[in-house]
Write a structure and sequence with these properties.
By secondary structure, the protein is mainly α. Helix content is 79%, strand content 0%. It contains 8 helices and no strands. The protein has helices at residues 5-19, 24-59, 61-75, 83-88, 93-107, 112-123, 127-138, 146-168. The longest helix is centred in the first third of the chain and has 36 residues, at 24-59. It is elongated.
Amino acid sequence: MTDYIVPLILFVISAIALGKKENPYDLMLAGAADGLKMLLSIIPALVLLLTAVTMLRQSGAIQVLSGFLAPFFNFFGIPPETAVLMLVRPISGSAALAVGADLIATHGVDSLIGRTTAVMLGSTETTFYAISVYFGSAGIQKTRYTVPAALIADFTSFLVASFSVRFLGL
């Protein structure tokens, strides 16, 4: 069934365009051109984010910072081993998946840390990536309250994920 979804969508779009007596090929080309323009405006932010995450991971700064924040996480009942994940997730989804895979491989799938990691990965967003994509495509330069609000939402998601796993036995 899933093999037919994209061709079906293209067929429906083409049928609608033809019904309106418009050229579906030209419309799709215009949409693709707009997508490429948006991609060109987003690429610099993505390169910067990925470079920064790689530098922080390779330098060991993230591990030092997570060790420093471990007592804070313990206070809230969040496993301190997930500190690296919590620091990386708002910045890079691929780095967060790598950290999550490492945590799960180290502690096991059915461990408290493994389950907490899985729920954290599924309940949070790559905040800075999403902000750069959405604000960049809309041409918004200043994020004002968006970044603090999004980071508070991320922390809340991490906290609820940890409580859910611990108290609901997920």
